[in-house]
Amino acid sequence: MKAALRALRFLIAAIVALSALGSRLAIAHEIRPAYLEITEVGKDQYQVIWRTPLLSGMRLPVALALPEGARELSMPSILERSDSLIERKLVEIPGGLSDKRLGFPGLQATITDVLVRIEMLDGRQITEIVRPSQPHLDVGASSGLGSIAATYTKQGIRHILEGWDHLLFVFGLMLLVRSPWMLLKTITAFTLAHSVALAAATFGLIHVPSRPLDAAIALSILFLGVEVYKAQLGETSFAIRQPWAMAFAFGLLHGLGFASGLSTLGLPAAAIPLALLFFNVGVEIGQLIFVGCVAALSFSANQLKLSKPSLLARLPTYLVGSLGAYWTIDRVIIMGAGW
Q1: Residue 333 Cα to chain centre, angstroms
Q2: What does the alpha-carbon distance between residue 176 and residue 228 come to, in Å, rounded to a whole number?
Q3: If residue 329 lies in a helix (H) or strand (E), which one and from where to where?
Q4: Mind listing the pLDDT tens digit for each residue in 54-97?
Q5: pTM of the predicted structure, to 2 decimals
Q6: Are the C-beta atoms of 73 and 41 separated by less than 8 Å?
Q7: How far apart are the first and last CA of the chain?
Q8: Which of 90, 115, 188, 242 has the highest CB neighbour number within 10 Å of its CB?
Q9: Residue 330 CA to chain centroid, in angstroms?
Q10: Alpha-carbon span 177 to 303, nearest angstrom
Q11: How many Cα atoms within 13 Å fall on the side-chain side of residue 168?
Q12: How far apart, in whole angstroms, are the C-alpha atoms of residue 139 and residue 160?
């Protein structure tokens, strides 16, 4: 009886701790990059679109500092969305933008980046990422398609490695599937599904509001946690027998989630297929890094052959289920508050 009570107290404490952790991870995942788009529309004249993320309804303390001497030619228009503020204005920069510096005061105090896209009248394009460690950009020559590929690959890797809900789903699949061949089949199905959904959403074929989508993604993690627990008890279901089918179905949801992350970055109109391709490549690289790390840790633990209490052995399953439940409740509440 005492052992059962200790186990119950341990489980409750673990759920509380995981819920608190889940809150922090969910907040971290909501911090999107800021985005600056500058398009040359005439001699020394530029259309500026400046988007800054919102976190819990508050604008991140990042500002845009145009080169010295710049002046506004029109009153800025500001559009407020659920996740960001978008400012549009027409400015004049005497002598043009080339060889000038764009500054981002306050960026060094955050953990976000700024994706900058610049298009000149002569066809030159610049795509760069500005980091908090160096909160400015010196505008130079055109960066070309190679820079676009590198930029969006890095953003894809970063998006998946900071997407704790997506990684937790992949982790749950690794807990559910023990056969290497079936795991390969399941991960491939998940990859194929989210790649298809990402492309469809990017080209405007599918649109799902972000809040219901986030809640559905959390629910998929909760569902997976239940299936993992049932499998550990020796039970069976369609998802346990054919995990690749479940992974494909939920992969469509997660792909739409990737698309929302890609849309916040902004896409170069002339190179949407290239940006989409390399963002997806980055996502897959990040996913493989995660799977490899988990597999290496699992192999190392098995080599040590340490005896573990049954409750501790099931802690990863409780992690998936508890965080899935917490995120589902949290996101449903947020979704309800927005209606």
Answers
A1: 21
A2: 5
A3: helix 315-337
A4: 776 678 889 999 998 999 998 889 988 877 889 999 999 998 88
A5: 0.67
A6: no
A7: 47
A8: 115
A9: 18
A10: 20
A11: 31
A12: 29
